[in-house]
Amino acid sequence: MRRISCLVALCVALLAPTLCARPVRRISQVQFPPPDSPIVPLPSGLQIFPAELAAGEPKEAVLEFRRPLPIGFSVPRLGAEFPDLLFSLTVTNAGGEADMFCRPTSRPGDLDPVFGSDAVWSSNHSVGTDYVFISRNHTQFNEQVRAENTDQGITLFSDILCNVWSLSETPTSVVVELDVVPGVRSLVDREREAVGAIFEECCGDEGCPVWRAIGDELFGGDDEEEAPLDLCHVRGSVCDEEGHAVRINMAGWGLACEMPVEEFKKFPKLEKLDLSHNAVGGKVEDILGGLTSLRNLVEFRASDNDIDGFVDSLAVCRFARRNMTTLNLELNDIQGPLPGCLFDNTTTLKELHLGGNNLSSTLPDVFSVNSTLEAISLEGCGLTGNVPKSITNLTRLRTLFLQENNLTGRVNDNLFKSDFLRIVNLRGNNLTGKIPSSIAESPVVMTVLLDGNKFTKVPNQWMDGREAGLSTNLGLLGLSANNLKGDFPVVLGRLPNLGFLDIRFNQFSGPLPAETGLFPQATGILLSNNSFNGSIPEEWGTIGIVANTAVVFEDEPQFIDLRNNNLTGELPDFLLDAEGLAPVNVLLSGNNLTCPDSGDDGEPVSTAHLPGLEC
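User: That's the sequence. What structure does it adopt?
Assistant: Structure tokens below.
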């Protein structure tokens, strides 16, 4: 076995839109190795780029926004078989995040980017280490085999391309390791027997159709098995070189049973277990109490199952304090109240996901500056009370999802002054007072959703045009369905990377600002159901999507929604240019606008491209 290690220092940015769509404009921002990038043969016969990986030494690099790290392979068959490939992807600093996506390719020079939507093999990264295992037995591995005349004669190759994408704007250090495994890797007998017992207990005679069908994806499987029991070659699961399972992914396999804790306790090296989207039941305190004996387990995901019981138990607290990093029990039947041990400085959790459970609890005011928490999801849990002031102590927090609860009170302005916080969703609560001014000043926050609350005021500096410290990263801001009053918050239109603004269903009034260059990157500007008056400024023809200067992704909707205001006056010329305006959808109904009888050339003016316009 040959191990290739590389240390990659990544300066990263949130990439969610680019993982499933490609830019239409400014495609040059995505850069890949030139076509003559060297393909270096290794002693194992594996051909790989970039060339630095072939040296077997750590490699430092910077991965910028929309610039993935490409890794390509031409994998030769060694003797009678191809080798297996195992990637390890480790994020080593707080706030960083990355994922690897791989697919087969029909040509070794293929450099088209690999997105999450077209990946055959991928990591499921949260924190710590994750794996991508590419098995010689996968159908997709064998479908693109080609023959090439080499010094050893005719050699068969399978070509694979991987991209490591950045998922966080925080500069991130990652370690990427590659094991090339020419020998057979099989699950040890005791663990294989445990898998068989899980199948018998949770699938019965006809259940688990997804698990049974997995055998069709594998070459060289046991035709006598009802379903694959050797998880080493099942996509999503990974074994170490000794044949012990280190990651088991049975998400969506159709398991229907009480959680077989005793069988899972037979996997001593298990690090990550995913049982999401099944019908697994049992008491949460019994399940977590049983899994506590797995000393290497750092991630447990069992969202969308039938787990019940009480989260406020000693067993849950012990589980959260034993080097666990990720706990995801969303969409179950677990009850509260929330114990402080999940949030204070005794927990080792970095990610906590309990949304969609009936917790009916307040948020414990125990958040500590020493907390390891980086992601909290507690949406739709029946939470009441205030957002604790101590939540601003979470210096490593990256994402906070508390939407669709019954939270009240004000939001502390310091919440958005964190060095790591990227996404905050508080929509659908009963929060009051002023919108925190730090939202538009934070150097790192990218998405803020405060829709459907009872906020009454926006910061004065948003109204009077003070631009000191404007955020360069805020991309999505939702403030709709509140009780906000006053003039148009012009500072929001000047945010350089704001992609979506929703202030519908408020009580804003006054004229729209007659200023050039507003909304340079916004593809959604939703201002309907307010009381804006006056005419639509001709200067709004310089908005990014109208002037065709914004970065827009393929099939991405583009909207300017001005419906149901008190706008008057004649339509500006840029709105009458149907060809130049396409594909921007401009919605103007419910106003008192005037259409010109004819254009400058004396010909009648058509407004068919402006649906619902009455003038």
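Confidence is low (pLDDT under 50) at residues 1-45.
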